[in-house]
Task: structure prediction
Amino acid sequence: RAELELEQERAFIAQTDPKVGLTPAEHAARLEKYGPNCLPEVEVNICLKFLSYFWGPMPIMIWLAIIVEAINQDWEDFVVLAILQFVNGIVGFI
Result:
């Protein structure tokens, strides 16, 4: 299947002389048939992008350490780890 698509693409490219390019009529015909040669823009939700910096191997380990400190009621370490987590996420986002 991939070989067939590659062969079709090669045949399509062979129709155009790379030194001359497309004529205006051929350009218009291909634009009409295939559409513009551009990729669609993917919009990323800014909130989800920000939250993604709090997910991963290292942030998960910090979250686990925060939970352990909360269970042990060691509030000083809890606050330090929580600040570390949020600063790390903000710096990564910026």
Remarks:
- Residues 1 and 7 are 10 Å apart (CA to CA).
